[in-house]
Amino acid sequence: MKIRSKIIILTISSITALVIILLLSYWSTNRSADYNQIIEEGNNLTTEANNVYGLIKDLVFAGFAPEMYRFVKGYVYMPNFNTIYNNWVRDVEQFQYNFYRFMELDELKRLLENNELEDEYNIILTLSANAFLKIDSLKEKFSKIDVSELLKLGDYSYIEFMIYENN
To answer: Considering the entire predicted model, what is its pTM?
Structure first.
């Protein structure tokens, strides 16, 4: 074989190897971007869940300890029960929407194709369905009563009955 043929073969194999490395690098970068998007969306969901949880604590505090609310009112800002309730309902609905949008991400579905996370995915769907049913039940119970009027009267027994009924 002549030297020219060897150089051409060497050049072609070098270019082929370079193209393969570039394609693998591109694929790896895309895969990494997919994982980063899943992580970012998951972190956003966690933040939203913490906000909803914080509003539940505020809701319970404003709804079931209004006498404490009067003492603390001068030290911290706390809106009235109805405002907290409306914010909570809005945030819960936004969280549910974002949760289901997250669970339908194409990137997440690609992870499930390899059966890496299929069991965990199904468990999360089951647990979230149960949690959202309980939250909907809580929303329904709070919407059945005019909490602000009951709280003014100091009659908390009806509220406790409504909350713990069917649990």
So the answer is: 0.68
31, 126 contact by CB (below 8 A): no
Euclidean distance between CA atoms 140 and 146, whole angstroms:
12
Rounded CA separation 103/133 (Å): 17
All residues at 6 or more sequence positions from 148 whose CB lies less than 8 Å from its CB, including other chains: 80, 81, 82
Tell me, rounded to whole angstroms, the distance of Cα 87 from its chain centroid.
Answer: 17
Q: What is the pLDDT of residues 8-49, one digit of tens each?
A: 999 999 999 999 999 999 999 988 998 898 899 999 999 999
CA separation for the pair 78, 61 (Å, rounded): 10
Q: What is the pLDDT of residues 53-65, one digit of tens each?
A: 888 887 777 767 7
Give Cα 48 distance to the centre of its chain.
Answer: 6
| 71 in Cβ contact with 39 (< 8 Å) | no
Please tell me the distance from the alpha carbon of residue 5 to that of residue 109, in angstroms, as a whole number. Answer: 48
Domain ranges of the chain: 38-164
Task: Give me 163's structure tokens.
Answer: 């909350």
Q: Say how many residues make up the chain.
A: 167
